[in-house]
Amino acid sequence: MIDKVDIFAVAKRAQVSISTVSRTFNHPDQVKPATRKKIDKAVRDLGYIRNRAAQTMHGIRSGTIGLVVPTIDHTIFAELIQAFSQSVEAHGFVILVASHGYDLEREYAAVRKFLEHRVDGVALIGQDHSEETYQLLESNKTPAISIWNYDAESRLSCVGADNALAGQLAAQCLLDHGHRDIGLLFPPLPDNDRARGRFDGACKTLAAAGVDLQERWMTESLYSLSEAKQAVTGILNREHKPTALLCGNDVLAVGALYGAQSIGLKVPDHLSIIGIGDFKGSEEMTPALTTVRLPAREIGHLAGQQLAGSIVGNLNQTVRINCAITLNTRETCKRLQQF
Q1: What angle do CA 303, 186, 255 make, to 5 degrees?
Q2: Which residues pair with 96 in a beta bridge?
Q3: By the 8 A CB rule, do 161 and 149 touch?
Q4: DSSP class per residue in 94-160
């Protein structure tokens, strides 16, 4: 029977010290690339697997971080997840991903399962979480961070953007193009602080400009192209229709574009559309989508950097980072001629 390969065998094969092997696993940035390459070759040649259960150095229990997102069905969080993963990987961590479908009870269950597997930290999306989830993280003293929505009074450290400002910028863009008959297409607002922030910001901006929002031009849809398309056609098939649609995210905006085209309306000649997010593909579609850019990659990178750093450095202070957003005016918004 072949003896199980241990860290001593790896160090001997790579001709380095045991501490250097350990440092390569825990803090690869502190080891020269050539040395890391030798150790990696030894690990591969010997088939070495670390004993995570016995590892307690630097507070690292498993080398994993749990990330719980609302959905992985669309590209909404794809850039963020990729950037977050790359950022924590630089500190020696890998991520475990779970989705909760905008159900905070399922989010609690996912966090609990992650903690049972001894993850070193947890990242959540937004500020809406059950009290049980907050208490679970606090009672276990688990490093945690909220991503995507900036809140100056967040309970956890957070890295995100001002979603209310995103709604304001989108609304002001339509106003600046002369639109006053404006429809709203948003996802369900309960348990979704990002959508609520954008909705509130948009409504306040429109109200301040004297725009009377029509209930018949306001509807909601899940993050689904087909559902958004169907929801929009219900508005646009009316005799009196809006000249512009403000959508709570780019997925809904693309669905709205498809809905308008399906009943013979041209965008932006007959209808202007604006989204929020600026996800992959929004600029490349025809016509290119006017949208408010949320810097997903920057948010993911900074959040990963912050959480991994707090784990390795045993930092407990709350940090809140507000990432800048921008309006990208493209082809789906048209200035009204009479304006």
Answers
A1: 95
A2: 66
A3: yes
A4: EEEEEE-TT-HHHHHHHHHHHHHTT-SEEEEESS---HHHHHHHHHTT--EEEEEE--TT-SSEEEE
Instruction: In whole angstroms, give the CA distance from residue 254 to residue 251.
Output: 5
Q: What is the pLDDT of residue 1?
A: 39
* Helical spans, DSSP H, in the chain: 7-14, 18-26, 33-46, 78-89, 104-116, 131-139, 163-176, 193-208, 225-236, 250-262, 296-312
Residue with tokens 């993050």: 223
End-to-end CA distance of the chain: give it in Å, rounded: 84
Burial 297-327 (b: 16+ CB within 10 A, else e): ebbbbbbbbbbbebbbeeeeeebbbebebeb
Structure tokens at 310: 């707090």
- Take residue 246 and report the two structure tokens written for it: 């403000």
Positions of the chain with pLDDT lower than 50, given as ranges: 1-2, 56-59
The predicted-structure confidence for 99-158, as pLDDT tens digits, reads as follows 998 999 999 999 999 998 889 999 999 999 999 999 999 988 999 999 999 999 999 999
